[in-house]
Amino acid sequence: MERDLRRAFFMFGGALNPDVDPDIDPSEVVTPSQAAARFGVPAGTVRSWISRRRIKPIGAIGRYNVYDYRVLAKVEFEMNYQPDEAEVA
Question: Is the pTM of this model over 0.70?
Fold first, then answer.
């Protein structure tokens, strides 16, 4: 699904915000769920970070907001998130 989402975004243009880096790599365009899977955290945690830090989406594909993975990775690093064993299992 991740590959299809990125391809659709760049094939059909998505709805990019005008202040987005035009040279962004397609692999750096992610939904909160995709970012959560990469970080190994619950999707709700990533959505919470987005809300708390007021991170703006770089665009949308249909009803899905997409974000710059680099921005979310920086937040993840700053939060130094350590999931509970119950969340990982």
Answer: no
In the block, which residue shows the tokens 């999931």? 83
Please report the pLDDT score of residue 62 as a whole number. Answer: 79
CA angle 77, 78, 83 (to 5 degrees): 65
Closest of 34, 69, 38, 40 to residue 55, by C-alpha: 69
Q: How many CB atoms lie within 10 A of CB 20?
A: 15
Distance CA(79)–CA(46), nearest Å, equals 11
Per-10-residue mean pLDDT, the chain, length 89: 53 56 76 92 92 89 87 86 60
Strand partners, 68: 29
* Residue position matching structure tokens 């005008």: 18
CA 51 to CA 62: how far, in whole Å? 20
Give the C-alpha separation, 88 to 74, whole Å: 21
